[in-house]
């Protein structure tokens, strides 16, 4: 009998309530603004909107948006090209640095820049149009950099790693064994153990094969590097013990069989890892960041799971 990987999704009332409260609090300024506008009347509203200062602020805001948009495009695309298509020294480090501003709120960054400028010179202030443009560009360029870099490293020639039913997609879930709620970095495709082949999703080199060692929670696994620098990594977890057909250092091609689906803890207790049934855990990492494998394959015309 075929055992399929279980998928557990539970409602979290506490999280839902917290989200509703947070959304309600965030809406307070907007609601207050609407109430004030309605209460003031059309005449007062018209007088306020048509003041010269409002027009100046609106024009400045539009100009700032245009400058930041152009700056983000130039900086984001250039950074993505440098870390994915050149031999820039330390490009793995630069790949992380380019995305790092996302971890810093823009208002914190602006305050930091202002504070440093004050220490540098007591006669000039870090403020005004160009100061705002600089901070906003530096701290929003990663929103351009990340998708462009993903598009550049994810090239043609991808194949379906396994046939079967998608039982647990990429995203946050409650783990069926540990009960912990965390990010599921792969996509689980369930099918029969042993008789279902696992294929390389793209041309590449095997950098790990076996049990444990490389994120051992998925038992027997194969890890492949597809661009020679670790920028594009795929991982195939819960493969059946004794079915691995490649060795570390082997060059493989897209669609080449590399193992067979495993994951049944009663059939293969040592190689199944943290699994409840037969399935392949397939994972794609771009520049060290796990991405939705199904969406990545779909962008190259390949459907993962049914």
State the gist of this model.
By secondary structure, this protein is an alpha+beta fold.
Structure, explained:
It is a single chain. The chain is an alpha+beta fold and 306 residues long. It is built from 8 helices and 12 strands. The chain has helices at 13-40, 42-49, 52-85, 91-99, 106-120, 129-140, 142-153, 293-298; strands at 165-168, 171-174, 181-184, 187-190, 197-199, 204-211, 220-225, 232-237, 251-252, 257-260, 279-286, 289-291. Helix 3 packs parallel to helix 6, helix 3 packs parallel to helix 7 and helix 5 (106-120) packs across helix 6. Residues 1-9 have low confidence and may be disordered.
The proportion of residues forming helix, as a percent range, comes to 40-55%
* Structural shape: elongated
Mean pLDDT: 82
Order of helices and strands: HHHHHHHEEEEEEEEEEEEH
Tally the helices.
8
**CATH-scheme architecture of the largest domain:** Distorted Sandwich
Q: Would you count the extended β strands for me?
A: 12
